[in-house]
Design a protein that fits this description.
The complex is a heterodimer of chains A (about 70) and B (about 270). With about 70 residues, chain A is mainly β. Chain A contains 1 helix and 5 strands, in the order ββαβββ. Chain B has an 8-stranded mixed sheet with strand order 3-2-1-4-5-6-7-8, sandwiched between helices. Classes of the chains: A mainly beta (about 70), B alpha/beta (about 270). The interface of A and B includes residues 6, 29, 61 and 65 of A.
């Protein structure tokens, strides 16, 4: 299936969950990333059970704490 | 209040812009912006707001200038090492533009002082370096219905978003709660490229100027991310969140509070 991750379309195996995608994409600080799926936040407790479908649009939103 | 000939000359490149004009420049001269953190983000923001003639600029920071700050905190110079950051920042801003008034607050923000600090200002710039302060500023600005610019920088990356009451989500909508101490690296641990503060802090100043002058559209409801290594900007539309603990329909946070001091990275 095709997914659009951070604006880039890529091919992934069918049935991938959000939790698996976080691993496949090597997301930094995977415990502390916010995930938007088709313009809705995925609840942090539901990454394991949220199965992705063809043409889904996913954004990872990262904590960025620096500034001073 | 009319501009003097010198002021008309000083602000001529603004006044010639149809989105600013004399009217927008007057708004800027009557505008009040508070910058929290006189560091990587706060330095460029303060320089541009001073140069733009924003009438009153508040700057809050409890720290003194350290030599390790100078790689990115461009409002301070080598002779300023050891000086209070807010004093160093004030001197530079006043040297750039004697038209403006600078209020220097030598303090870190806390639940005890944040509402009083932001009350006198039209717009707040979050230039802090820790999640406790970032969540505190968000909550206080939501509660006080105060527009503000959030930003974060690390390594070769930066991001920012603008909150305006009633126009899209707040920082807590996106990130809910701060990560535990040391779960997410700080600039001190991970480093940050100096010009990143210049890029992102200048964008924060841009949002403040647009807000005060009434020009263009603000970065509400979206997160703008910048990756210097791939040289890519992305404006990521953020989903709505109705159950936000501070800006949602039934908020559980109704006054500012401090997260454990352990979250703070003392520089």
């Amino acid at each position: 299936m095709k997914l659009i991750i951070a604006g880039v379309q890529k091919e992934y195996q069918d049935g991938l969950t959000v939790a698996e995608l976080i691993k496949v994409e090597n997301v930094e600080t995977p415990m502390y990333v916010s995930v938007s799926l088709n313009d809705e936040f995925v609840k942090s407790g539901e990454y394991d059970e949220t199965v992705l479908r063809d043409d889904d649009v996913v954004e990872f939103l990262y904590f960025m704490g620096g500034g001073r | 209040m009319a501009f003097s000939n010198e002021q008309l000359e000083r602000y001529s490149r603004h006044i010639i812009l149809k989105e600013i004009g004399v009217k927008g420049q007057k708004r800027l001269s009557q505008g009040r912006v508070l910058i929290i953190g006189a560091g990587g983000l706060g330095s460029p923001a303060a320089l541009y707001l001073a140069a733009a003639g924003v009438g009153v600029i508040g700057i809050a920071d409890a720290d003194t200038v350290d030599i390790s700050n100078l790689q990115r905190q461009v409002i301070h110079t080598t002779p300023d090492v050891g000086k209070a950051k807010v004093e160093s920042a004030r001197e530079t801003m006043e040297a750039i533009n004697p038209d403006i008034k600078v209020n220097a607050y030598k303090t870190f923000v806390s639940a005890d002082n944040i509402l009083a600090l932001i009350a006198d200002y039209d717009f707040v710039i979050d230039g802090t370096d820790n999640f406790a302060a970032k969540f505190l500023i968000n909550d206080a600005c939501v509660i006080a219905r105060k527009p503000f610019s959030h930003a974060g920088i690390i390594r070769f990356k930066g991001q920012l978003m603008t909150y305006v009451p009633g126009e899209g989500l707040c920082y807590r909508c996106v990130f809910k709660n701060p990560p535990p101490p040391d779960a997410v690296p700080t600039c001190r641990q991970a480093g940050v490229i100096g010009a990143m503060g210049g890029v992102i802090g200048s964008l924060q100043a841009m949002e403040a100027v647009k807000f005060i002058a009434g020009a263009g559209k603000l970065l509400t409801g979206s997160l703008l991310t910048y990756d210097a290594l791939s040289m890519e900007f992305r404006k990521v539309k953020l989903p709505a969140r109705r159950d936000c603990a501070v800006c949602g329909e039934h908020p559980s946070i109704t006054k500012p509070f401090d997260y454990a001091a352990a979250v703070c990275e003392v520089l």
